[in-house]
Amino acid sequence: MAGFEEKIKLKTKEALIAIEGYLPSEEGLQHTILEACAYSVENGGKRLRPIFMQAAYELCGGSMVSEELYPFMAAMEMIHSSSLVHDDLPCMDNDRLRRGKPSTWAKYGEDMGTLTGDALMIYAFETAVKSMADPKKKLEAIKILAEKTGIFGMIGGQVVDVELTGKRPSAEQIEFIYKLKTGALIEASFMIGGIIAGADDETINKLEKAGSYIGMAFQIQDDILDVISSEDELGKPVNSDIRNEKITWLSIYGMEQSLKDVERFTSDALQLLSEIRKNDEKSFLEELCLYLINRKK
To answer: CA 125 to CA 78: how far, in whole Å?
Structure first.
C-alpha cells in the first residue's frame, strides 16, 4: 500500500503541473477574476478526475501525455472547480468554507463568485482546444467534455438535487443524481483518456460504464465516510448529511447494503477495465479504483 500511495503522490504532482501550467496569468483590468479562478482551482482536493484521465490514457496505450492530454486534464479540473464554486454560493449550499479556506464567494463576493464559476467553465474549453492531439480525436473528446458537463450530465444531476432539497427523493432519484452529479465527470475522464489514446468504440463504451460504476461507488463511499469517519480523518465536518436531513443511498439502503454496493459497483468497473488491458498485470487505474473503496477521506 505504501508503494501505491507513493505512485498516487507522483500522479497528483503531475496533475498539478498540468493544471497550473494552463491557469491564466493574473494581469489586466480583469485581474480579479483571473486571481479568483486560480484561487478556486488551487484550493483543490485529490485531483482525482485528471488522474483518472491520465490512467485511462495510459491503460489504452497513450504515450504523449504532456502534448495530448495535459490540456484536457487541466480542463477537467477547471470544470470540477467551477461546480464547487457554484455549489458554495448563497443561492445553493451557502458555504463560506471550502477545504478549510474561505470559499470563492466568501473571499471575493457573491457577484465575483458567480462570475468565477462561469469563467472557469468557459476557460476549460479554451484550454482543451490547446491539445496537440489529432483533430478528430480532440473534437470527439471536447464533445464528451461538453455532454458530461451539461444538462445531460453534471448540471442535470445538480438540477434534480436542488429541486429535491427538503423533500424525500426515491431510490431511483438518488441514483439519477449520483450518476449525473458525481459520475458524469468521472465517465468523461475515463472516456477522454481513451479517446485521446486512440481507443476503439467498444473500449470507449467500456470506459464509460466503468466510470459510471466508479462514480456510484465513490459517492456511496462518501455517504458512508460521513457517518463512520472522524473530522480529523475526513478533513471536514462529519454527520453533515444527518444534520441537514439529507436523504442519501446510506439512509435508504442502510450500512450493510451500502458497503456491499460499493464493492459491487467497484467489482463491475474492475471487470470492464481488466478486459481493456493487454496483459495480466493490474493497471494503475484498476489499483486506484481498489484503493478508493478503502479510503478514509
So the answer is: 9
